[in-house]
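[stage:ingest] chain + small molecule (nicotinamide-adenine-dinucleotide)
[stage:ingest] validated
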Amino acid sequence: MTKVLVTGGLGYIGSHTVVELSSAGYEVVIADNLSNSKLSVLERISKITNQTYEFYNVDCCDYSSTKEIFEKNKIDSIIHFAGLKSVSESIQKPIDYYSNNIESIITIQRLICEHNISKLIFSSSATVYGELSDPPFTEDSPTGACTNPYGWTKWMIEQMLRDFSNANNDKKVVILRYFNPVGAHDSGLIGEDPNGIPNNLFPYITGVLSGKYEKLTIYGDDYDTIDGTCIRDYIHVCDLAQGHVKALQYMQNSRAGVDVFNLGTGRGTSVKQVVDAFEKSLGHSFNYEIGPRREGDLPVAYANTLKAKEILQFCAKRSIDDMCTSSIKWQTEINEITHD
Ligand code: NAD
Ligand code: UD1
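[stage:predict] done
[stage:export] tokens:
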């Protein structure tokens, strides 16, 4: 059976991807240093899939401990999720972000060469598009002009992977640029569980619903959009996870080199529309106010999804209502865990 190493596999997107890989028949090995996840996620994944997993508590920046995974397993391909991801924290602690995100992918590239592995998928972000072009963003839209160190790490790693591929002409590298991953697994057993006060819209709203925060502040309603609030391309995390399975299937017969794909729905949803969808799922309203704009926010960002559709045969299926309903179900589960 084909063994896939999933780094950061106990994190938000990684855990959902492990579930999808298992149901597609891949054997999965998980590596995670638990810096932003909990070991209990491993049991929860197993509960969903009815399978057990080989798990390594390693820091992927550390070459010698990461090497052991490759010595003990015949790894066929790697999905590299491990990394730090908070925009605001990256502005406070840029060196932590540059060192963790860049050193971990360097270790992975070294090990790929030493163990003759040909397939690597890297988690990038739509944040690399910055303000350089108008949406919908295609994979050929200009990148760079990032507004924070987190975004720059993604941009730099994309370049590093192109150099790596030029120097190693037997390697297949897929860069996936995620738009706004949200929602949770239908079981309610896994989902996003951020440390501290969340910056992102969905976890903040579920925090308000659970009573952790008093109200949501909508960052600006004077943009030139349908209702004045910002537009984003929210994609259900289970659809996003399936995008990784599609990418692995594509790599089975693809040519060596770097391929870049957007993973989004291609549909824009405003902040107010998200609030309405939550209220519809809940059956009642919740507390919010309009505040000033947030610095660095683009008014509108959504994907052109044609390339992923044509080449990966990937199409996100779940609606904004599915995203809200599954987030609410997961929030109920977190409350139960915290009150245990
Ligand atoms: P997450 O923090 O939930 O998951 C990342 C996992 O990696 C965590 O479990 C963490 O403990 C682990 N990790 C971090 N550094 C590590 C290291 N050096 N060695 C081993 N494990 C390490 O984040 P996520 O939302 O699941 O994101 C996964 C990837 O996707 C990240 O690279 C992130 O930048 C990227 N991404 C996320 C989003 C998003 O909105 N969530 C958007 C675009 C891109
Ligand atoms: C943010 C990051 C981006 C990162 C992405 C996924 C910034 C400027 N951008 O994108 O680099 O890749 O998260 O992690 O931080 N909103 C509110 N009130 C809130 C929270 C958000 O109104 O309390 C609005 C925002 O203004 C935005 C939308 O909701 O219009 C979505 O915000 P968020 O979830 O933070 O995602 P992005 O801004 O797209």
